[in-house]
Amino acid sequence: MTGTSLPTTDELRERALAALSRVGVTPEDGSDFHARTPITGEDLFGLAAAGEADAEEAVAAAHEAFLTWRTTPAPRRGELVRRLGELLREHKSDLADLITIEAGKIRSEALGEVQEMIDICDFALGLSRQLYGRTIASERPGHRLAETWHPLGVVGVISAFNFPAAVWSWNTAVALACGDTVVWKPSELTPLISLACDRLVARAAGDVGAPRDVHRLLLGDRAVGERLVDDPRVALVSATGSTRMGREVGPRVAARFGRSLLELGGNNAAVVTPSADLDLTVQGVVFAAAGTAGQRCTTLRRLIVHRDIADTLVERLTAAYRKLPIGNPFDETTLVGPLISPKALDGMQGALDRVQAQGGKVLVGGNRRLAGQAPEAAYAEPVIIRVGEQNDVVREETFAPILYVMTYDTLDEAIALHNDVPQGLSSSIFTRDQQEAELFLSSAGSDCGIANVNIGTSGAEIGGAFGGEKETGGGRESGSDSWKAYMRSATNTINYSSELALAQNVSFL
Ligand code: UN1
Question: Which of 160, 182, 284, 495 is the most buried (most CB within 10 A)?
Fold first, then answer.
């Protein structure tokens, strides 16, 4: 299937400007960098970038706003995220347009990303009435021991192109409810959706009487991100991106005793056992591996299949891959949109060449598509490739739709293979055998931050904590008690007696 014809860059430019204008943004003309669309691979228009002086000003303003925001009662802070959630609902279609235009996501996934933002606003609103601390039994008579939670400060959010809005919203909605303020440095590849999100927070702040500077946006390059990393007023740096980026950010923030929350690479695998429901497995695998053109950090990249069912499953998967409609992400029938850039396509080709040099066999996919119609764009057929047991390339994350298939004989072997990569974000097992499922979820099973049964590795709900182990960075964002990363706790000992009793029975004076 070749997919439908692509819209022109002019049409996309108009559509982007219309969406921006409905949200309330008039992009400031500039020539520092260009908004671009991977749909045609061409530039949309020039934009002005923030420099280091802007970063300084934004952090100072956000810090000033923090000093009042931290004393605003948390349920009142919740009103800001409630209003933001309302505005996101109102502009769901506009925001999805911008995500499709800039990140190339198909319509349904772009709408899903906005839904994820709406969901986290609902969550953060509830959270604003649930920032609970504990009371602890004191060992001393007439004493109370309590734990209280307090806002942390300015949160620097550094986000990636692939979830240009949802990952920002996980951080921002929770941080704002927690009494923090936010300075955001988005990916240079997705400035327009960032402008729209910033505008909606500003509108929400205006509507509920919160300070404008609870949120500031910095459209800029790496130097701007570095300012956030190094500024001691930025109490928490929450960064999403490559492991290479995290290796720089983590130590730099630690050197000033700041906090960091890192969401780095994923190189996620699924184990398929002989008892698996293959209809469900095929659907789950195709969405997780080929969905979003393989550009989620939760994308399924390694399939570890029991030897007895490998041929049957691979046959069904390759048949499904052959039918994947690739092309215009605005077309309702398209399932695979473009890769973000020609550089991503080169990375994909490079990985395929290396795996094949090590004996890997491409089973389906791998051709470039639509090059005649859009020479600057990067459309590619998702690939399934069978690899031998010894293949180093599978241990690296390539941000493209490549699924490596490996076989196993015993579940212990499958779990060892599964965990034998430096990353540890998401994982799943397809099985109808309860013992197998429980073993996979046990401490002797998957070593990832996310471990699923009978669903793929991607598409997590916001209610759970999101993040991973090992080179994924160890951070947890979004739901559950991830909010604790955005606050500081204090332990309070209150003596309501008239005696001064020392702990541990120490006597003095
Ligand atoms: C990411 O790819 O950076 O679980 C985030 C998922 C989405 C979030 C992915 N809810 O696939």
Answer: 182
Ligand 1 proximal residues by C-beta, below 6 Å: 116, 162-163, 167, 240, 296-298, 458-460
**pTM for the predicted model, two decimal places:** 0.97
Choosing from 105, 298, 397, 428 the residue with most ligand 1 atoms within 8 A of its CB, the one to mutate for a pocket test is 298
- Kindly list the distances between the CA atom of residue 240 and the CA atoms of 56, 120, 178, 245, 476, in Å, as whole numbers in the listed order: 22, 17, 20, 9, 11
What pLDDT score was predicted for residue 2? 47
β-pair type (300-306, 268-272): parallel
**Which residues of the chain fall below pLDDT 50?**
1-3
The CA distance from 284 to 453, in Å, is 11
What's the CATH architecture for 268-463? 3-Layer(aba) Sandwich (3.40)
CA–CA–CA angle 2, 338, 312 (5° rounding): 65
State the closest ligand 1 atom to the C-alpha of 240, by its place in the atom list counted from 1: 3
Top-level class of domain 12-264+473-489: alpha beta
Q: What separation in Å is there between the alpha carbon of 87 and the centre of ligand 1? A: 22
Residues classed as catalytic: 263, 297
Count CB-CB contacts under 10 A for residue 71.
9
Among protein residues, the one with the nearest Cα to ligand 1's atom 3 is 297
Tokens 């591996």, residue located: 289
For 64-95, the pLDDT digits (tens) are: 999 999 999 999 999 999 999 999 999 999 99
Per the rule left: phi > 0, alpha: psi between -120 and 50, beta: everything else, 227 is: alpha
| Per-domain boundaries in the chain | 12-264+473-489, 268-463
Query: DSSP secondary-structure letter at 389?
Result: S
Q: In 183-242, which ranges are continuous DSSP H helix?
A: 191-208, 222-230
HSE at residue 399, side-chain half, CA atoms within 13 A, is: 18
Q: Which residue has the tokens 């402008």?
A: 195
**What DSSP character marks residue 145?**
E
pLDDT at 389: 67
Structure tokens given for 393: 């390339």
Provide the phi-psi class of 118: left if phi over 0, else alpha when psi is between -120 and 50, else beta.
alpha
Tokens 């960064």 sit on residue: 239
Give the nearest ligand 1 atom to 466 CA: 4
**Pairing mode of beta strands 469-470, 423-424:** antiparallel
